């Protein structure tokens, strides 16, 4: 009996996803179609990118509320540099950016903001919630400053290919997401760095005493979260052919929801990347299904909130000894 | 030794990425090149209204109304012009018609065809991007931001509001016969074919 219960607990996200798919297939003839499948895959790809980083952060018992704003700022920086380049009048020089240059700079900006988060948390012991909340507003303000409050559009076909193109019959955002997920799974399961992340989340004091450089690992984790948010930002900007100043609003909440629904403990030390992917899929499928069923957007928010609540309650019931 | 090779490979990769990532040029040269492609929106709009509208390809209004009522999605996809992912398709149409009613905000026309189809000419609310998008006067990629691109519509609509519409309102009487050419916008998701409004570009009375 205990074995059956353990198996059910282990596969609860997949079971929930399957039940959801079956119910939606019965209720809407448009749900179980190839077109809708690709739509869901493309829509969740950005959330998966962010959520992979968020999983690492939450595994260390942290939280990152700034991913939505970092996404917007990184996307805007990449779009701005690609479109306008950099003008340095004092030396009469113009620096133009290729698509590769714009993307690399966007990722660097995301990583740098992540490092800043990590530095605040480790150096000044600012609680992750507060440090990343501050970054949320800083990065959003920086996005507004950089864009002047207006969208940056017309980024060219090569850049747009990242978000709208297809390769071997699969959308590019899905390829990017799959590659990132595979790397993240390998890093968390097969590397020392991954084991250190779990160790810090499980018991930080024990991890410190066993010689793990906690601060270094945490800064790396927040940097990775920033870089992955930037990846999401570049995909979104490319998909819309436009960097919107208000892009990524409340994406951090969708991301935390995916992580929690996927079974990662907010107390740290327990969870997995694949669980988060399943969580993002559940949210994506739920979003798509509710739209296809013509459910009012107000009800959609209530339903999503209830799903998150149920996921957390089930997690608490299954792991009553967590902090 | 291994460490040294690792650093060399890393430095080479960074160097290669940077080489392909950025390019440098003189700021003066760059600005000269940029100015070649910059539009003076006002001049563009005035020039368009003064010399391009006569030769602008247009769809016969009667055929347009028949075809769009028959298969709105297919017709819009094949013949309309739209921007980005919008569901709004834009067309330049022309035709000969008789003035049926002069309304507060429009002039209701009956097309001079065997079907006697109706269409309205807008005379009050001259807004939107129908002229800009239907005429393909400019490419969004040539503009630094959407505000500049939208300003084309503002200029075009202003010219229509200040020159075409006052002349039309001043002359028009019921039962007048006229030739019109203008831009019309159709939304495929929420079509309202009974109330299509043409933003007038050319009106010629047949008196």
UniProtKB/TrEMBL annotation, chain A:
The keyword Cell membrane applies. It comes from the Bacteria. It is found in: Cell membrane. Keywords: Cell membrane, Membrane, Transmembrane, Transmembrane helix. The chain crosses the membrane at residues 7-28, 40-58, 65-82, 94-116, 128-146, 166-187, 219-237, 273-292. InterPro entries: ABC_transp_permease (IPR001851). GO terms for molecular function: transmembrane transporter activity. It is a multi-pass membrane protein. One of its GO terms (cellular component) is plasma membrane. CDD domains: TM_PBP1_transp_AraH_like (cd06579). This is Ribose transport system permease protein. It comes from Flaviramulus basaltis.
UniProtKB/TrEMBL annotation, chain B:
Pfam families: DUF2291. It comes from the Bacteria. Keywords: Lipoprotein. This is Predicted lipoprotein. It comes from Flaviramulus basaltis.
């Amino acid at each position: 009996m205990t074995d059956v219960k353990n198996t059910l607990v282990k596969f609860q996200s997949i079971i929930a996803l399957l039940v959801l798919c079956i119910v939606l297939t019965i209720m809407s003839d448009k749900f179980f179609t190839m077109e809708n499948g690709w739509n869901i895959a493309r829509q969740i790809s950005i959330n998966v990118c962010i959520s992979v980083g968020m999983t690492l952060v939450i595994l260390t018992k942290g939280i990152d509320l700034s991913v939505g704003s970092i996404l917007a700022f990184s996307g805007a920086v990449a779009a701005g540099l690609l479109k306008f380049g950099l003008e340095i009048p004092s030396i009469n020089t113009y620096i133009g950016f290729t698509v590769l240059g714009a993307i690399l700079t966007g990722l660097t900006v995301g990583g740098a903001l992540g490092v800043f988060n990590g530095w605040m948390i480790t150096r000044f012991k600012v609680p992750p919630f507060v440090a990343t909340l501050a970054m949320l507003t800083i990065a959003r303000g920086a996005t507004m400053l950089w864009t002047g409050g207006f969208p940056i559009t017309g980024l060219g076909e090569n850049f747009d290919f990242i978000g709208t193109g297809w390769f071997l019959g699969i959308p590019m955002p899905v390829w990017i997401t799959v590659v990132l997920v595979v790397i993240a799974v390998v890093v968390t399961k097969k590397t020392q760095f991954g084991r250190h992340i779990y160790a810090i989340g499980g018991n930080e004091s024990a991890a410190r005493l066993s010689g793990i450089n906690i601060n270094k690992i945490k800064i790396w984790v927040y940097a990775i979260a920033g870089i992955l948010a930037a990846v999401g930002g570049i995909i979104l900007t490319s998909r819309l052919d436009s960097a919107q100043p208000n892009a990524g609003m409340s994406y951090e909440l969708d991301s935390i929801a995916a992580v929690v629904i996927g079974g990662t403990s907010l107390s740290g030390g327990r969870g997995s990347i694949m669980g988060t992917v399943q969580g993002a899929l559940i949210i994506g499928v739920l979003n798509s299904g509710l739209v296809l069923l013509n459910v009012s957007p107000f009800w959609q928010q209530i339903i999503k909130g209830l799903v998150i609540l149920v996921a957390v309650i089930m997690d608490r019931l299954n792991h009553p000894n967590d902090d | 030794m291994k460490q040294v090779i690792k650093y060399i490979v890393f430095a080479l990769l960074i160097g290669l990425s940077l080489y392909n990532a950025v390019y440098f040029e003189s700021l003066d040269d760059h600005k000269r090149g940029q100015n070649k492609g910059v539009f003076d929106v006002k001049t563009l709009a005035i020039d368009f209204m003064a010399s391009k509208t006569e030769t602008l390809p247009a769809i016969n209004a009667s055929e347009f109304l028949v075809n769009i009522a028959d298969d709105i999605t297919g017709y819009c996809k094949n013949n309309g012009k739209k921007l980005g992912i919008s569901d709004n398709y834009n067309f330049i149409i022309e035709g000969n018609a008789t003035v049926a009613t002069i309304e507060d905000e429009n002039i209701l026309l009956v097309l001079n065809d065997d079907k006697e189809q109706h269409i309205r000419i807008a005379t009050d609310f001259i807004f939107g991007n129908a002229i800009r998008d239907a005429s393909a006067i400019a490419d969004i990629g040539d503009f630094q931001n959407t505000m500049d691109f939208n300003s084309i519509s503002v200029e075009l609509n202003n010219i229509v509001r200040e020159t075409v519409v006052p002349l039309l309102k001043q002359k028009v009487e019921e039962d007048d016969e006229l030739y019109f050419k203008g831009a019309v916008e159709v939304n495929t998701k929420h079509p309202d074919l009974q109330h299509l409004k043409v933003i007038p570009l050319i009106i010629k009375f047949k008196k």
